[in-house]
Amino acid sequence: MRLRFALTLGILLLPSWFAVAQPPPARTQVTVIVHDGQGAPIPQAQVMVHDMGDPDFHAPWQLVGLTAADGRCVVEKLPEGVYDLRVEATGFAVHWQREIRVEGGKPVELRVVLPRVGAIRGRLLLPDGQPAAERELAVRFDRNTPGQSFLGDATANTDAEGNFRLPLEPGEHDLAVRLAGVGYALLPKFTVETGRDLAVGDVTLVRFATITGSVRSQSTGQPLAGVKVQRSYFGNSLFSMRPLDPVKTDAPGRFTMDDLWAGEWMIVAAAADYARKAAEGTVKVGSGETVEGVTIALERACTLTVRVVDADGNPVRNAEAWLYWEGKRPVDADGRVSFEGLTPGKLKVTAGAPDWASMKRDVQLAEGETTEVTLSLTLRGGTIRGTVRNALTGAPLKDVLIGVMEDAVELEFGQQTRFDVWIKPFIGQWGPAEFRLHRWRSQEHLEATTAADGTYTLSHVAAGEYTVCAIADGYINETVESTRVKENETTTVDFGLAVR
């Protein structure tokens, strides 16, 4: 029917795969020149880039070269694209630069100035006032610069008198110091200057807090061993941005967390075949204090299988189902998708698909069981209806083919795309050689034939702008462009076809 539609129009129907061969990507020479604050070249600086077009946002930085004695690093044949730049050198602050455009084979030259790092100096004291001699400190710092904040980790070592020196980049910092098995200290809001040491005096540690508890089975009451127990902190970002490693319960199901800082903590337990669960409320603890008796009862996890179908029970293509905490997941060819590791109880599941109205349903999950639910979707959109008549006599025409196409689309050189199209010649400002490219709507409900009285109806047409066509043997085909369809509204498009 669609082929007849295209051929009757005297149009060319292109193949489903419409691809344009892409030219080889252009490559560009990029030169990075690195100096210090006094203009002296910095040799052996590492020049790294990150391709912003890489779909893996967390892909590692790519080392593209080192600077020579004159501070220059020449990167040959860097592919076209948009890059982030990072330059590092020992004893200097790290340089970051975003959205560097490399295009058209045009050489790029970048000049980078690296200021020398500063440092803080101080003496670390134990909670009893004695020097923390010859210890390794774990340091977490938050460097604040205009418009951004950078969280990092470092280490420092004390000497026999507890003295330490920690190099830091210039800028305003917040800093937390941790000494394993002992305690921590917080140094808020100090400023490090380029090439200078800042004396912070004595830094006295306060003792870690401790939280202990146990994990058991909700149904049997038996202790659960080997359960991972995670802790999340509510408070200063120095502590909360990067959570501590989880601990595990022992054979009697007990756990101990003895490296905590003062404040409020959320305690969450997770084990294979059990649903994750948090202790009731948050646990508040002070420096050097111990809170005991935190108990978490785990329930066996549930599985929810969702099947998304239409009114006739057929799977809906490109459908998704989603839960609030689990996010969206696509269905398979049979319209099914499963969510595992869920907590027993009542939850709401939602399903939807392009051109279909979404549907929600409350589901009750039983401990350790699999529940299956079917969600039936209805097509959404507006309606196009009308009548086709003989333009001369006004008589209704039966079996006229009515079709809907999306209005004109533009293609760029090198673009690859996939859709069925039809090409219609028309007289434009540049003469009769112009062509207009339209995208053919692939849904079956966007094609219809007229009844004996010449009427037709196209239901569930997605909101948008379309070209509607009428085709009949022995008649001149007619199209109506820029037909606007609105959600839940009816648009009338009538045709009067002239005899060939």
How would you portray this structure in words?
The longest helix is centred in the first third of the chain and has 7 residues, at 2-8. The protein starts with a helix and ends with a strand. It is built from two helices and 44 strands. With 500 residues, it is mainly β. It is 2% helix and 56% strand.
CATH architecture annotation name of the largest domain: Sandwich
Q: Uncertain segments of ≥5 residues (pLDDT<50)? A: 1-22, 408-445
- Which structural class do the helices and strands define? mainly beta
- Overall geometric form: flat
Q: How many DSSP helices?
A: 2
Roughly how many Å is the radius of gyration? 34 Å
Overall number of domains: 5
Biggest sheet, in brief? 7 strands, antiparallel
**β-strand amount:** over 45%
Annotation, overall tally of beta strands: 44
Task: Find the CATH topology of the largest domain.
Answer: Immunoglobulin-like
Mean pLDDT: 83
- Indicate the percent of residues in helices: under 10%
SSE layout and pairings?
Elements: H1 2-8, E1 12-13, E2 17-19, E3 27-36, E4 46-51, E5 62-66, E6 72-79, E7 81-88, E8 95-102, E9 108-114, E10 118-125, E11 136-145, E12 148-157, E13 163-168, E14 171-179, E15 183-192, E16 197-204, E17 206-207, E18 209-217, E19 228-234, H2 237-240, E20 247-248, E21 254-260, E22 263-270, E23 277-278, E24 283-285, E25 290-298, E26 302-309, E27 320-323, E28 327-330, E29 336-342, E30 345-353, E31 356-365, E32 370-376, E33 378-379, E34 382-390, E35 401-406, E36 416-418, E37 421-425, E38 435-440, E39 447-449, E40 455-461, E41 464-471, E42 478-485, E43 490-492, E44 495-497
Parallel strand pairs: 3-9, 10-16, 18-25, 26-32, 34-43, 34-44
Antiparallel strand pairs: 1-37, 2-36, 3-6, 4-5, 4-7, 7-8, 10-13, 11-12, 11-14, 14-15, 15-17, 18-21, 19-20, 19-22, 22-23, 22-24, 26-29, 27-28, 27-30, 30-31, 31-33, 34-40, 35-38, 35-39, 35-41, 37-38, 41-42
